[in-house]
Design a protein that fits this description.
The chain has helices at about 15-25, 60-65, 100-105, 140-150, 160-170, 175-190, 195-215, 220-230, 235-245, 245-275; strands at about 10, 35-40, 55, 70, 90-95, 110-115, 125-130, 150-155. With about 280 residues, it is α/β, with parallel strands linked by helices. It has a domain at about 10-160: Rossmann fold (3-Layer(aba) Sandwich).
């Protein structure tokens, strides 16, 4: 089903996130190729050979003129160089740490959505929280929800500060489980397990367990408690990890990421005022 909200333009459509969102929308039939415009510095975008009628441009101002919905998918530090007039447009930002106020001041938009997909959008497994400013209409919110569901799962949040928190929690994508896999890998290698087998084992446990947690009925808290109640080898390992500060270490890491996201938002606001 094609959602009739007009033309969608992705600023930074040649980057990995812009490309993932664009491909997901096209593959799902959410938008037709003639209703999608991508911009990149070169005016060319790779990865869309299946859709030859797709329009690309190097001019963000042209994109904004043609699009009804503008998706901002550039690195936060690049945003100050983006020149567009998005008044009377729905603007959807997937930039970390750039506030709705800053986006509005730079683009002229007053209907703004901040969203935080992650790298799993490339395989349709992203979790995307999003926040809408007061001017965003109910039909537009339904559009945003459906758009990000083409990349995985999505939820609206109702405080903009929650986006900074979720940037730390879910925006990291594979980074947090990859760190766990790395710790398992280095442990196995230190015990003499061949590197190839150690890596396969670490990847398999993180990937397989992730699927079980995602698709099972039990919450993560219930799963941990079930294994603790078995009082076996896994319980011994869990108790040792907890006792050695595993949970506190994770909380400290998430705090650091959330504080950085909030600081980026404040710094971007300062940059905007200076311009």
């Amino acid at each position: 089903m094609v959602h009739k909200i007009g033309v969608i333009g992705i600023v930074g459509g040649g980057g990995w996130m812009g490309r993932a969102i664009g491909r997901s929308m096209l593959s799902a039939g959410f938008v037709e190729e003639h209703s999608l415009i991508l911009s990149s510095r070169s005016g060319q975008v790779q990865g869309f050979a299946e859709w030859p009628a797709l329009r690309c441009t190097a001019d963000n101002r042209e994109l904004a003129e043609l699009a009804d919905v503008v998706v901002l998918s550039v690195r936060p530090e690049q945003f100050s160089a983006v020149e567009i007039d998005a008044r009377d447009k729905l603007v959807i930002s997937v930039m970390a740490g750039v506030s709705a106020a800053t986006i509005g001041a730079r683009t002229g938009a007053d209907r703004i959505v901040r969203a935080m997909p992650n790298a799993a959008a490339e395989i349709g497994r992203s979790y995307t929280p999003w926040f809408a400013t007061g001017g965003v209409a109910p039909a537009e919110k339904a559009f945003v929800q459906a758009m990000f569901e083409t990349c995985g799962e999505a939820n609206q949040v109702f405080r903009e500060s929650d986006i900074d928190l979720l940037t730390a929690l879910t925006g990291a994508g594979p980074a947090w489980p990859a760190l766990l896999a790395q710790a398992m890998l280095t442990y196995a290698e230190a015990k003499g397990l061949p590197s190839g087998i150690a890596e396969r084992a670490a990847k398999a446990i993180v990937a397989g367990a992730g699927q079980l947690v995602a698709t099972g009925e039990d919450s993560p808290r219930d799963i941990v408690q079930t294994f603790l109640d078995y009082r076996g080898t896994t319980a011994a390992g869990l108790q040792a990890m907890i006792g050695n500060g595993f949970i506190e270490a994770v909380h400290a890491g998430l705090d650091a990421a959330a504080v950085t996201a909030a600081r980026m938002s404040a710094e971007m606001g300062t940059v905007n005022r200076d311009h």
